[in-house]
Amino acid sequence: xxxxxxxxxxxxxxxxxxxxxxxxxxxxxxxRLQAEGIPVEGVRPPxxxxxxxxxxxxxxxxxxxxxxxxGLCAGMxxxxxxxALGYGLGMSGLAGMVLLFSVASYRGxxxxxxxLVLSLVTYVAGIVSSPIRAGTVSEYVVTAVVLVAVxxxxxxxxxxxxYLEELKDRAARxxxxxxxxxxxARAEERSRIARELHDVVAHxxxxxxxxxxxxxxxxxxxxxxxxxxxxxxxxxxxxxMTEMRNIVGVLRTDTGAxxxxxxxxQPGVRDLPALVEQMREAGLPTRLRVEGAPVPLPxxxxxxxxxxxxxxxTNSLRHAGAGAEAVVTVRxxxxxxxxxxxxxxxxxxxxxxxxxxxxxxxxxxxxxxxGGAAQDGPPATAGHGLVGIxxxxxLYGGILNIGPxxxxxxxxxxxxxxxxxQ
Length: 422
Known about the structure:
5-stranded mixed beta sheet; histidine kinase; alpha+beta; about 60% helix; 13 helices
């Protein structure tokens, strides 16, 4: 059977209070008071009835936590009888002070004030009805001050307990908020890694596919050219593996390759020449133009611009058609980075995989501010690549236009804002 410790403690406390009250009651009889020079007129000597009333006055201490005000009222009955019958000089007040303290520490302010007023009124009524005339006004005032002090100590304990509970609740709320932020950060990181992996895999696999097709066509006629294409495939595959390690390496829990990958730089606009050269080797003639004075870019904008060019060139490589040429233009403006990728291929009008789109609707023009381009092509227009580009541009408050050019070809253009020219 499980024992309630608080009830056990209160029962022991009630026994101690009863024993102390009876001991004081027996020690401070009329003879002892008279020997100390205290008037004993009207004081009744200790007897069994007085001791029994003291024990009865201490019994409510057992329920001081559960029913403190009721216990205080119940304890006042035998205390008032003791005072009215002339027993001692208020030795029965021990139980009353314990119960008053309990009311103040376990109940609200209104109930606590009611308990204090009730105790003071009962004390005054006991003085008036007692046959003992041994006290002075100052002694009565001191007793009242002691009662108020006991009540104040109980209120202080209650306020401190409430403060500690508030601290615990606040700590629990902060812990829950931290857990929610951690989950959100993990979800965002997973989304970022998925987007990066798609861009890396889509680009390099597309390049490898084109090079493998070229190697297959010239394998019998020109083995040396086929060997160069296979070497390019190997090199592209190694690049893809390196980039994927850099992306997912941060998920490792050890301090080895994962830690090194986390410190590795992400690609950016500075890596566009190498990307353009790679596309040339894959069979897509590509030119890079840089306009304006280059300025340091925020890491996120730098990576977004690189991935946009990578995805746009990958689409051109796959769908622009034979003989197409791509031009990458990066323009640095005072408060904006303008990135444009266009090709002059005919695949946009004939192949759905190109991601054909018309510049209409809300997302067509720069004035929209939302960076959208209305799509009306075949199902490939909803590919993850273009969706990823939209997410990247929207993340940094940019404007995105995707669609075919009037004279043929296709263009992907993004305008990314730069704060304070950076």
